[in-house]
Write a structure and sequence with these properties.
Number of strands: 0
Order of helices and strands: HHH
Largest sheet: none
Helix content: 55-70%
Number of domains: 1
Distance between the termini: 27 Å
Oligomer: single chain
Length: about 70
Amino acid sequence: MDSDARRETIEIARRLMFEEGINITSKRIEELLRPHSLVPTRVSHLFSFILELEAYDKLECILRASV
């Protein structure tokens, strides 16, 4: 799931690549992203919010069906 910490890690990686010119295959970027299998792609907050709503709706349907 998306989180502030995840977004911040990705922003740090993007800043290193696009502002400091560090290669995506560098050890520095790999050490930053690999522990959590992240990629330096930004997802819009709206898209993330929609995914959260869909997950909530599915959970609600499952819970209602089990009653």
